[in-house]
Amino acid sequence: MLEDDNFLDASVYITPPANGFESDEDSDAEDDCSANHLSSRQLTAPAEFRVNYGTMNVNSLDEDSDNYSSDDDADVSTDDGSLRPVENLSSQSPPTIDRKWLKKDLENVVFPAAPAEHRFTEPLTPLAIFNGFFDDDIVQNMVQQTNLYAKRDKGKHTFSTDVREMRLFLAMLMLSGYTVLPRRRMYWENSDDVSNKAMSDAMSRNRFEEILSVFHLADNLHLDTNDTMAKVRPFLAAVNEKCLNYFLNSEHLSIDESMLPYYGRHSSKQRIMGKPIRMGYKVWVLCSSDGYVIQFDPYQGAKKNGGTRSSATSWGLGESVVLDLLEELPRGVAYHVFVDNFFTSFRLLDHLAKNNIKATGVIRSNKLGKCDIMAPKVLEKKIRGFDDQRTDSEGVITVVGWNDNRSVYVASNAIGSQPTCQVSRWCRASKSRISVEQPQLIKMYNRHMGGVDRCDQNISTYRISIRSKKWWWALFAWIPDMVLQNCWILYRYFVIGNIHFIAY
C-alpha angle 344/350/354, rounded to 5°? Predict the structure, then answer.
């Protein structure tokens, strides 16, 4: 910013320690005052800078004030001030708006019409739907990489498999999801209580374990060293494309994290308390409200650019995840995305609104910025069902604070608080159920936010139980489980529901 041709002057202020007595001196000699030698308290202290570019001032402390915009963003708007459609949601810098908040509801927001349904020409069988995701190209690549790994890397020159045997191997893995045994060798035992005729007749135990030992998804000599998921990345990308191809363009979508159980050692493994699966890989998932997985991306850690596919660094982690998952969707349709408080911010809602995408999400109280809505402690003293609302002067974003068991804040660029509805809640004081008034955007959030949780519930019912010592096995095993529940949703939609739609 200081190297810009229009730069005039700048001032920088770093907040001193809270007690006012200790000083934050440089950690090295005075003649070497670089950013690499600042103390930890200096690096974490709130700071403010003001840069003067003549007619434009930039303030770093104001969340909603103008950030420095480069020449790359100058061609986003047209001559009449309207926004041009962009192909990459995360290619722009975060929007810079000085918001003024008013105590009013959000007016009707005009977005594109609801998307039309895609229809198949005729009903399909469950097997045909599954083969749409695991087509011959994907299975053939699995066969090719497995044969290559067995012969070149493991020295098994006589080993060879084909597409038919690989499909049989996948079927046996999925069978272990609903006939679970403590050890995989029990499927071939002669005991009446554990033997499985379908498994033993399909393939011998030794052949199954041989395929399992050399099963591979990528060429070890051509791996991206900067990608911790390189051994499964081509496979994940291919399945991602299939999920997007068979997406029905549902209007209501949700973005959340999904945990894959894994207890080995890997730099991307996460431990999150309070989750049904507390330890394993974390995957960012974009789902429809009924649980259909549209896009997914494993989280690699903060040091790997947030585990996202975008190279944009001007957005926060949660914001970049939302933008990266949405950028592959077909444009010109009325999507409404629901996110939790990890992803929601005012600048994200504003950016999505300019790209004709509705968004609603719970927002943390420390992200409200200059919005003068009631504080959580004040809101919780009100009667149950009380709400306080603020809408920015541009009519783009509205925030509603609602008091239920405790205070909650929900922001949206598409839905207001009206019309309200009545919901049933348990009252501890009267020990009975009472009727509580609920704003409209909170009702819509509760109805459509649980897509990823519904997907997790479906997968957990019949999760593949056969394990492997490969670190990427948990990521691979999640794919057939996820595809199977996607196929079940499609089958239920157009076969059981007797609805025909065209695949594209």
Answer: 135
Q: Is the peptide bond before 419 cis (omega within 30 degrees of 0)?
A: yes
Predicted local confidence at residue 60, as pLDDT:
41
- Return the residue matching tokens 């403590």: 182
Calpha distance 423→455 (Å, rounded): 26
Range of the domain at 1: 1-69
CA 217 to chain CA centroid, nearest Å: 24
CB within 8 Å of 428: residues ≥ 6 apart: none
CB 90 within 8 A of CB 315: yes
Burial environment of residue 190 by CB neighbours within 10 A (0 to 12, 13 to 18, 19 or more) = exposed
Instruction: Give residue 330's pLDDT.
Output: 81
Distance of CA 484 to CAs 65, 97, 129, 134, Å? Answer: 47, 44, 9, 10
> Does 309 map to a domain?
no
Cα dihedral sign for 416, 422, 427, 429? positive
Residue ranges, the chain, pLDDT below 50: 19-33, 54-86, 306-312, 498-504
pTM: 0.77
Residue 20 lies inside a defined structural domain of this protein? yes
Name residues whose C-beta falls within 8 Å of residue 102's C-beta, 6 or more positions apart in sequence.
390, 391, 392, 393
The total number of structural domains that make up the chain:
1
Predicted local distance difference test score (pLDDT) of residue 111:
75
Q: In this predicted structure, what is the pLDDT of residue 237?
A: 95
Burial class (CB in 10 A: 0-12, 13-18, 19+), 394: exposed
